[in-house]
Specification:
Oligomer: heterodimer
Shape of chain A: globular
Structural class of chain A: alpha+beta
Largest sheet of chain A: 6 strands, mixed
Number of strands of chain A: 23
Shape of chain B: elongated
Largest sheet of chain B: 5 strands, mixed
Radius of gyration of chain A: 25 Å
Strand content of chain B: over 45%
Number of domains of chain B: 2
CATH topology of the largest domain in chain A: Dipeptide-binding Protein, domain 3
Helix content of chain B: under 10%
Number of helices of chain A: 12
Strand content of chain A: 15-25%
Structural class of chain B: mainly beta
Radius of gyration of chain B: 27 Å
Strand order of the largest sheet of chain A: 16-20-15-19-17-18
Chain lengths: 461, 421
């Protein structure tokens, strides 16, 4: 009846096909090691803006919570707020605050601290507490306020004598600004303790250094540039990417000066071969687009023609007495930006336009703007803010694709911006990293990540 | 804050909805279950067709147009063909005739697209060389209907019971007329009644707990004879009332959870801040009162003892018979095992989770003649990760919960072994 285990092993290997990896439950323990390009010098969501918006957003979510989170379908879900309601005008909202939550410094989350945090992030809002709730009053209708509250800048933080504390799933064990951050899991996190015991984040690492670190097994998660997106994973690594969440565009420094200026701007837009730009320069790591917002957010982006039309471009400027000689600025710190700018200059020349790339001040700039929310309305508003464009004009309680389209087309008709591509964010992971669920917007959910046996520590009940 | 009829509100579901008197005799009703679990869904596109046709007609005016339709959405070819026909009908009723392109002054290019929450239908209307306009409507994307019922050719029968956005911890069907379904999730126990060919919510009972739930939350529902059910969650025990209206009382509790079935009982202590059992057993298996820390357990009755299989946290399968603890190394099994008394084959089978080549989880049945597991069915795919696998109370069927890897929704299935098919 009782046979030795070795016999069992041998026999079972004959009758049971090997599945690898098996369906396993998450393991607790271990340290997740992550590398990033960004080198933020502050952990405060309201600190100095970082050039790496996505990295800062992902860091913020490890330490801070927001009242609301957007799920993968862009629908607001409760986080620190358990419920909310608005008046019909959508100007006045009330959010009920979850009870029993503590900041990392041990103090209790109250509606007063929530109100203070939101006031600091949004000086123009009227925010006050009412018992266990927070009331927000806006100057105009804000039908998408819950989605707006999911933005990282609206993270709830307690600021006390230069120290900042959040309610997030991890707490800071060691912080070397711009270089290294060591976090430990909070046992009392309201959303459940993270599976990993700790997270170690190395900052300011070039993509090349990150790739070497991953290959050497020193790092388990690194960033991947869009042009590296299709780099094949191997047995020990895999690549996860978001939907297109970043806009690459040409942004003019000034409004259209005249009708002729408008015709030249249109000619430039028609001359750009976005498909080649994407295919050759970015190794198909993006999606050519003439829309500000990507199709996955709106469903209508494809109606904006993104194909090159040199004949129309030339026709547009035919008969003009003089075509401007513009300078095209690019970020000298972005290694790919110069290549893109030069290719656009060549496209423009084919249409009879003169465009001179420069890393200094310029008539128009090659920009990369993060699309900050899965909510299209919120993203459009944030995008226009980033580009210095007038805020989109929306009906008071508008929340329809029709109105969104009208707002976007009005912004495009201003000819202040020429969309080029939508880019994805991506990460390369070691095979030991499990349940990495890169959301559509590229945000990480590190508390859900666990490390397969061998890298995780012993399980402790 | 003023009250108004058109508030924008997010609120948790309302607990303590009234319950109708319920008589739930626990009789077998498997065949009926196959028919009643499936909410029928058939799309009715008439309203969006009317809306888009009206916008097209307003932009083009009455007369002859050519119409081209492109499907850029997840709608099927059959659905897009039906929508095209519906649009033609609606346009005709508005005085817009669809003709060949060479006979039309106006060209209408309809695209069926989608975003995160809605179908977006657009019409690009071209009149002359440079005169074009875009009109659009949006209509909510319906919930993706899960596969109604999949009958495995290899003898595991999988029947969909319920799907929802939030994680399902366990579910159980209460036989009777009408049948009831109880679903346990992180916040509530929800009772559904089968009525008008679908499960209708009858009562929502909120779960009270003081401590945060751990990630990978687990829980178990068990029907009882003297009251309707017990629910076990990490650090919490909930007991329903015996009489209607149904009430539930939840207590902070470290009491062990039942991991066996009615015929083969065994209790085990659950680590209330983790996702596994500590290994401490009550009362134990023969002389063995502890097992390695484990995720799941499955009993297999033998003539004079019960063999217990434990999917241990160390990644191995441990077999305890009351005296010895043997390990079965790399079987390729996942962390969820349970057993069912199907009456087929040797009478009992172990259901074990595994991984398919496409990365999604499977469940497969095994028999363990001595200590050697042998597969007796093909693995069945769940299109995502298995998050729960429990035997139903009497041990004939099992409940599996899977998270769909595409939609993120959770689905609870009843699994049964079909003999000789």
């Amino acid at each position: 009846m009782r046979r030795i285990a070795s016999l069992l092993l041998a026999a079972s290997s004959l009758v049971v096909p090997a599945h690898s990896p098996a369906a396993t439950r998450p393991r607790y323990g271990g340290t997740l090691r992550v590398a990033m390009r960004g080198a933020p010098t502050s952990l405060d969501p309201l600190g100095a803006p970082s050039s790496d918006w996505f990295g800062s957003r992902n860091l913020s979510r490890l330490l801070f919570d927001t009242l609301v989170l957007l799920d993968n379908n862009g629908k607001p879900q409760p986080a620190l707020a358990t419920s909310w309601q608005s008046e019909p005008s959508n100007q006045r909202w009330q959010f009920s605050i979850r009870r029993g939550i503590a900041f990392q410094d041990g103090s209790a989350l109250t509606s007063d601290t929530v109100a203070a945090s939101l006031r600091a992030a949004n000086p123009s809002w009227k925010v006050f507490s009412v018992r266990d709730a927070v009331v927000i009053e806006r100057d105009s209708a804000a039908p998408n306020l819950p989605a707006e509250l999911a933005l990282p800048r609206n993270s709830i933080a307690r600021r006390d004598r230069g120290k900042i504390s959040g309610t997030g799933p991890f707490t800071v064990a060691q912080w070397n600004p711009g270089k290294q951050l060591f976090l430990t899991a909070r046992e009392d996190y309201w959303g459940g303790r993270a599976f990993a015991d700790s997270v170690e984040i190395e900052m300011g690492k070039s993509l090349r250094d990150q790739a070497i670190s991953l290959d050497l097994g020193r790092t388990q998660v690194i960033e991947v540039a869009p042009e590296q997106l299709h780099r094949a994973g191997n047995e020990s690594t895999r690549i996860e990417h978001s939907e297109p969440v970043e806009l690459m565009a040409l942004a003019f420094a000034h409004d259209r000066q005249s009708a002729d200026d408008g015709r030249i701007r249109e000619a430039l837009a028609l001359s750009i071969d976005r498909a080649s730009l994407n295919h050759v320069v970015l190794q198909s790591g993006g999606e050519p687009s003439a829309a500000l917002l990507p199709n996955w957010m709106t469903g209508y982006a494809f109606v904006f023609p993104a194909t090159v039309d040199l004949a129309r471009a030339r026709q547009n400027i035919a008969g003009l007495r003089q075509t401007a000689a513009w300078t095209l600025g690019y970020d000298a710190n972005d290694p790919g930006a110069r290549v893109v700018a030069e290719r656009i200059a060549i496209n423009a020349r084919d249409a009879g336009l003169s465009l001179q790339p420069t890393s200094g001040n310029a008539d128009l700039r090659l920009v990369r703007v993060p699309l900050t929310s899965p909510d299209a309305y919120v993203t459009l508003a944030e995008l226009t803010k980033s580009l210095g464009l007038p805020q989109p004009k929306l009906a008071a309680n508008s929340n329809s694709e029709d109105d969104l389209y009208a707002a976007e087309i009005a912004l495009l008709r201003s000819q202040r911006v020429i969309p080029l591509l939508h880019l994805r964010t991506a990460s390369a992971l070691q095979g030991t990293v499990k349940d990495w669920r890169e959301a559509r917007d590229g945000s990480w959910s590190l508390p859900d990540v666990w490390l397969s046996p061998g890298t995780a520590g012993p399980e402790k009940p | 804050m003023q009250s108004a009829s058109h508030l924008t509100v997010y609120n948790a579901r309302n607990p303590h909805m009234p319950i109708a008197p319920s008589r739930c005799p626990r009789a077998a009703a498997s065949l009926l279950l196959l028919l009643l679990c499936l909410p029928a869904w058939a799309a009715d596109w008439r309203v969006p067709e009317q809306q888009l046709a009206a916008k097209i007609a307003a932009a083009s005016g009455p007369g002859a147009v050519s119409l081209q339709l492109n499907n850029r959405s997840s709608l099927t070819r059959t659905e897009s063909d039906a929508i095209r026909r519906g649009l033609l009908t609606e346009l005709a009723s508005l005085g817009v005739r669809v003709v060949n392109a060479d006979q039309a002054a106006v060209t209408v290019e309809v695209s069926l697209s989608q975003n995160l929450q809605n179908y977006v239908w657009l019409a690009e209307i071209h009149q002359g060389a440079n005169d074009s306009s875009v009109v659009m409507i949006a209509t909510p994307r319906p919930e993706t209907p899960a596969a109604a019922q999949e009958l495995s050719a290899l003898n595991i029968r999988k029947t969909l019971l319920w799907t929802q956005d939030t994680r399902i911890l366990d579910a159980v069907v209460v036989p009777g007329n009408p049948q009831h379904l109880i679903v346990l999730d992180a916040d509530n126990v929800t009772l559904y009644k089968f009525q008008d060919s679908k499960w209708q919510p009858e009562q929502i009972l909120a779960l009270a707990h003081q401590h945060p739930w751990p990630r990978d939350l687990r829980g178990r529902l068990l029907l009882r004879k003297d009251h309707l059910f017990d629910a076990y969650l990490p650090g919490v025990y909930c007991r329903s009332a015996a009489a209607t209206p149904l009430m539930i009382n939840c207590y902070e509790s470290d009491d062990p959870w039942p991991v066996g079935i009615d015929l083969l009982p065994l209790d085990a202590f659950f680590g209330h801040t983790r996702n596994f059992f500590t290994g401490a057993l009550a009362p134990g298996i023969g002389k063995q009162t502890t097992a390695p820390a484990f995720y799941s357990a499955a009993p297999l009755p033998r003539d004079k003892y019960t063999l217990w299989l434990f999917a241990a946290v160390d990644g191995q399968l441990h077999l305890l018979d009351g005296i010895t603890d043997q390990t079965a190394g790399k079987l390729g099994w996942g962390n969820d095992v349970t057993s069912v008394h199907s009456g087929c084959g040797s009478g009992w089978q172990v259901l074990a989770s595994g991984a398919a080549d496409n990365g999604t989880d499977t469940v497969r049945a095994f028999e363990v003649a001595d200590r050697e597991p042998a597969a007796v069915t093909a693995p069945i795919d769940f299109g995502g990760g298995i998050t729960a696998l429990w035997t139903e109370g009497e041990g004939i069927n099992a409940i599996a919960v899977a998270r769909d890897s595409e939609t993120g929704k959770y689905a609870a299935y009843r699994l049964s072994i079909a003999c000789g098919q």
